[in-house]
Design goal:
275 residues; 7 helices; mainly alpha; single chain
Length: 275
């Protein structure tokens, strides 16, 4: 077990190597174009008082900057190529003893688009469910890799067996029997990995359904309850509005009648005063 850990675990030193390669790929064209530009700019301000010298320094400064940029881009491509190989080797080492949930970020490009979207949504709703979904995704990727590699090895074994039959050497029968045993083992591995793949995909569907039950369905039920409550409150609001309207009309009719009575009283008082 200790041999497996020492062989497949990724050390911080190896991770730092990838960071250094990325930094080198970015900084190479910047440095190799900036350094000659700065040097010739300083020379131009110091010795560029004479026009011929100024023109010469400007020309060589521009030329060296362009050449430095071109060389920097070449180095950048080389460092990117090295980092691509480093990343591929690192992924193969991680996948050799099974992909872990903590290593899933390195294999995001192998996930389906709906799996990436589901992972993001589930983790935003429930962290525990998101961890389970990550574990299942890691199992699905491991099973997929084993299925592909065993299928590829089966194809190679079949070719070797056919070549041995064509050669017809003295010990070809013994070699063929060994190859057939390997083929049987690979077939068993392929069958088991396919079963693991089906189980992992079924578990992913179950986790997505559980997330929907915990999130989308619950939200829909809450929205429906609110809608039902609003629908129940609507008749009460209508009744209140009708009562308010009737009270307003009564008040207006009462105020009009009082106004008319006041006018009549004033008219009577005026007539009495004239008499």
């Amino acid at each position: 077990m200790t041999e497996l850990v020492s062989k497949y675990d990724i050390t911080p030193r190896e991770l730092n190597r990838g960071k250094r390669l990325a930094v080198a790929a970015v900084s190479a064209p910047i440095l190799l174009s900036t350094i000659p530009a700065v040097v010739f700019s300083i020379l131009f301000f110091v010795f560029g008082s004479a026009p011929p010298v100024a023109v010469t320094l400007a020309f060589f400064g521009f030329l060296s900057t362009v050449i430095g940029l071109a060389i920097g881009l070449i180095f950048s491509g080389y460092f990117l190529y090295k980092r691509s190989n480093w990343t591929r080797e690192l992924r193969e080492r991680m996948a050799a003893d099974g992909i872990k949930a903590s290593e899933l970020e390195w294999f995001m490009h192998e996930l389906k688009s709906n799996e990436r979207r589901a992972l993001k949504q589930i983790e935003s709703r429930d962290l525990l469910l998101g961890d389970a979904y990550r574990e299942t995704l890691a199992s699905r990727l491991t099973a997929t890799r084993i299925t592909k590699s065993s299928r590829r090895e089966l194809s190679l074994m079949e070719r070797r067996k056919n070549k041995l039959k064509q050669l017809g050497a003295g010990r070809s029968a013994e070699f063929i029997s060994e190859v057939e045993r390997d083929v049987e083992k690979l077939k068993k591995i392929n069958t088991e990995s396919q079963q693991m793949l089906v189980e992992a995909e079924a578990r992913l569907q179950m986790l997505e359904a559980a997330s929907i039950r915990g999130g989308g369905i619950t939200d829909s039920e809450i929205a429906l309850d609110r809608l039902g409550a609003r629908a129940r409150e609507l008749p009460l609001a209508l009744e209140e509005a009708k009562m308010a309207e009737s009270i307003r009309k009564e008040l207006e009719e009462g105020s009009d009648s009082n106004f008319e009575e006041d006018l009549v009283d004033k008219g009577n008082q005026t007539a009495d005063s004239k008499a």
